[in-house]
Amino acid sequence: MSHINHFSHGALTPLLAYLMSVVGSLLGLILTARARSAQGASRYRWLAGGALAIGGTGIWVMHFIAMMGFDVNSEIRFSVGLTAVSAVVAVGVVYGGLHVVSQGDGFPRLLAGGLLAGTGVGAMHYLGMFAMSMSGNLTYDPVMVALSVLIAIVAATVALWFTLKVEGPLATTGAALMMGVAVTGMHYTGMYALSVTPGDNVPSGASAMDFLLPLIAGISLITVGLLLAILLSPSAREMREDSELLERLQQRRTTPAMPPQPAPQRRPDGDDLFTPRR
Q: Has this prediction a pTM greater than 0.90?
């Protein structure tokens, strides 16, 4: 069995992975807070932005950075196609979970969204692992695999609950810090399920460094774009106030106007006809 080192660069890769997970989670929580106050197509655009931040930056990028510290005393290469598919899966399952819970309140919807997102994140992780190519043969401990998927489901459920309930800068930051712990914990639990036995396979695919420059450029563009979207758009409070104002205006349009009341008839002496004489 080959020696596996998950921290070949020391604490650098786990700290950077955790930082990216927190940044992605924080952006995602802010974007989904906007989605709660939006209506129609705008709501789904905000949800898509939240899924891109949480699934793309908070989960997939975290996974890739953590993999930079993985070493088995053998050259490691990655299938570009499978790695790209794993990124699409990460964003897609998070969007699916957000869409499910955005349709209404209740524990069943939250659980369904958490199961969808959590199992999808687990699939993304092991798809990314399957994309690795090295001279050894990979085997997995089924108990640790099941534990990592369970952690992913719990983490996804809690994260979706945060997107529904958390408001305010301090609460949102605290939630993002907790989400970062859960996501990185799931990743390293899944990594410890892996065992490598020596083999004579010839590694194929792209090296980790081939992904580094596009990854940094992609993260920068996504982060800047999402931040600009947040800065240039109304706040969640302003969106709620606008929504309430539009709702009141709509109610006024649909409420039938009261017919005008006839003026009271008067007697020649000036008293109303319906007013008894004293």
A: no
Running along the chain, 278 residues long, what does each successive block of 10 average in pLDDT? 74 90 89 82 88 90 87 84 90 92 84 92 90 85 92 90 84 89 90 84 80 73 76 63 70 66 57 51
- What is the rounded distance in angstroms from the CA atom of residue 199 to the CA atom of residue 160? 42
Residue 269 sits at φ, ψ, to 5 deg, of -80, 0
d(CA 107, CA 113): 10
How far, in Å, CA of 71 to CA of 259, rounded? 81
Instruction: Answer for the pair 125, 85: CB distance below 8 angstroms, yes or no.
Output: no
Q: Measured between alpha carbons, how far is 78 from 65 in angstroms, rounded to an integer?
A: 13
C-alpha count within 13 angstroms, C-beta hemisphere, residue 110: 14
Predicted local confidence at residue 258, as pLDDT: 58
Question: CA 170 from chain center: how many Å?
Answer: 18
DSSP string, the chain: ----BS-TTTTHHHHHHHHHHHHHHHHHHHHHHHHHH--THHHHHHHHHHHIIIIIIIIIIHHHHHHTT-B-SS--EE-HHHHHHHHHHHHHHHHHHHHHHHT--SHHHHHHHHHHHHHHHHHHHHHHHHTEE-SSEEEE-HHHHHHHHHHHHHHHHHHHHHHHH--SHHHHHHHHHHHHHHHHHHHHHHHHTEEEE-------SEEHHHHHHHHHHHHHHHHHHHHHHHHHSPPHHHHHHHHHHHHHHHHHHHSPPPPPPPPPPB-TTS-BTTSPP-
